[in-house]
UniProtKB/TrEMBL annotation, chain A:
PANTHER family: INTERMEMBRANE TRANSPORT PROTEIN PQIB-RELATED (PTHR30462), INTERMEMBRANE TRANSPORT PROTEIN YEBS (PTHR30462:SF1)
InterPro entries reported for this sequence: PqiA-like (IPR007498), PqiA-PqiB_transport (IPR051800)
Organism superkingdom: Bacteria
GO cellular component, one term: plasma membrane
Keyword entries, A-Z: Cell inner membrane, Cell membrane, Membrane, Transmembrane, Transmembrane helix
Organism of this sequence: Shewanella amazonensis (strain ATCC BAA-1098 / SB2B)
Pfam family, any one: PqiA
Transmembrane stretches, start-end: 50-69, 97-122, 143-162, 174-193
Organism taxonomic ancestry: Bacteria, Pseudomonadati, Pseudomonadota, Gammaproteobacteria, Alteromonadales
Localization: Cell inner membrane
Protein name: Paraquat-inducible protein A
From TrEMBL, chain B:
Signal peptide range: none
Ranges annotated as spanning the membrane: 58-83, 103-132, 153-175, 181-200
Species per Swiss-Prot/TrEMBL record: Shewanella amazonensis (strain ATCC BAA-1098 / SB2B)
UniProt name for this protein: Paraquat-inducible protein A
Keywords carried by this UniProt record: Membrane, Transmembrane, Transmembrane helix
Organism ancestry: Bacteria, Pseudomonadati, Pseudomonadota, Gammaproteobacteria, Alteromonadales
Pfam families in alphabetical order: PqiA
Amino acid sequence: MTDNVQTTGKQMGLCLCPVCKKTNPEDAQTCSRCGAHNQARDYSSVQKSWALLITAAILLIPANVYPITTLVNQGKVTHDTIFSGIKHLVHSDMLPIAIIVFTASILVPWLKIIGLAIYLSAISFSLPVSKRRLMAGFHIIEWIGRWSMLDLFVISLTVALVNMGQLLDAKPAPAATAFALVILLTQLAAKVLDTRLLWDRLDLEDDKY
Amino acid sequence: MDLQYASMHHDDIDNSVILCRACDLAVRRRALPSGVRALCPRCHTALYDTPFCSINGMLALCVSALALFLPANLFPVLELHFLGSVRTATVIQGAMAVMDLGYWVVGIAVLVAAVIGPGLLLLSILSQVLLVKMGLNPGWQRDLYKWLLRRHGLFSQLTMLEIYVISFLVSAFQLSDFSDIYFGVGTFSFTMLFLVTLFLQREYNIEHMWSRLND
């Protein structure tokens, strides 16, 4: 860790295959092992990632404002948003479940969108943020993102189990589609991004080695 | 247990150099003791670990996972008893119920993450293992092997069995307010499918699979 001479593949004229992780010469058109298209840096990935992220951020509003489930209990219809559903869980003394659902359906999507926005801003506007810390955050975002699917699984199981007409009936509501799209788009935004760009652009001064 | 390696100087270029996929730093590859992972010294992305990839072990895990796949998807994962009537739901019925009500984005997401993704992943690994056992002869065997390896990242990203297992626990607790909830054979099969797939994915090493094409 004391070595200050940090050589990147680009400086050496080498380039990592995005698919099979083989090291190729930079001027090769395709990877010699798997035949994938070879590219030293994907500069358009920042734009693609921004586009996906902004769409996801817009969809996050209907996902939280509109009801995500509709429950008919003995003729009485109640609509639940993500947040009111969690409040019900807290009131019915199911705190551990409430924490799981809160993490999966509120904390994770918000953290992901804010985190990716900081990450992309750091690349686009060269913000003076520690790259190390950004990268650590990015790994967390990549790993935790899929856990938002929990809410959709729970809805699908509940809908299939609880359908007894006027007596007791559970149905999904408009926010479910918006929420599903938020998950899809944020996953894509993280996947599409070429993180090597971050390490090219920012100054070494922001990191203390 | 993580080892960090200093980056190398720019004048010695040889096959032992690997590039970090996240920040493009050039790092020299060295032999690692088992159970240890090499991290990129600059951005702390995992670079490589000792291959842990036994073909026969993977074959065994793959066959048991496929044997569990059908019961996990055909038997109900949850049973609800409400005022004398019994309702059951399989994974696929859950997805279909949401789709029937017009929420096909949600339904397809559930179907892909819990049924199609895991199915494709298991079939893909099984075919890869069988191709390796057949000797990976030049021609269609190598081409198919490459095609499958290129898609492995997608298949494993689509597989969300662990989240589904947690989700039927959450649903069971939520619904226990209204009614009695029972777990069925499907629940057992699905949880076992998740465990076997977890071990299979631990055993599987994509870079080791790619390196089989080198010799």
